[in-house]
Amino acid sequence: MPEIKPKRLEENRVYTCRIFEVYEGKIQLPDGRVADQSWITHKPVIAAVPVTSEGRLLLIRQYRSAVEQMLLEIPAGTVDKGPETIEECVQRELAEEIGFQARTLVKLFEGYLVPGYCNEYMHYYLAMDLFAAALPPDVDEVIELVPVSFPEAMEMMKEGRIVDSKTALGITLAWEYLKNRS
Prior knowledge:
182 residues, alpha+beta, Nucleoside Triphosphate Pyrophosphohydrolase, 4-stranded mixed β-sheet, 21% helix, elongated
């Protein structure tokens, strides 16, 4: 049976910024009805799980204005610095956020973060064999480095001290990869 896909009839950009655009429009559903929709188009993003040679995760603590909290996270960022590959973005974000880059990058997963209203697509990497390579952080970032073990990170998720879903997924994927590699 062929897939019947809704058809976008109208789209109006209502807001634009450096990394995303907000649209409102009309969609014709497969049964013929027309529905009002809002959506966000977003540049591709990366998330990296940096692991030291001692097996410690390098998490970061930073302020997130949307939730008005300091959150524990894995390094992440947007492919927004001109023409760069996903892997180049991973290395740049690692250098900006933790002061290291990785000799070894392992692709763990990629997928949509919130497809109900946004096409933000994240590429997850495990970053190993770290070496010092600091870049200045983005002007709006104040970042604290928080090294933890994998068991500590898993406990922090259970206790609600890590509440960022990209971070929970990245840590879980990296932990499974490293356990299965041994």
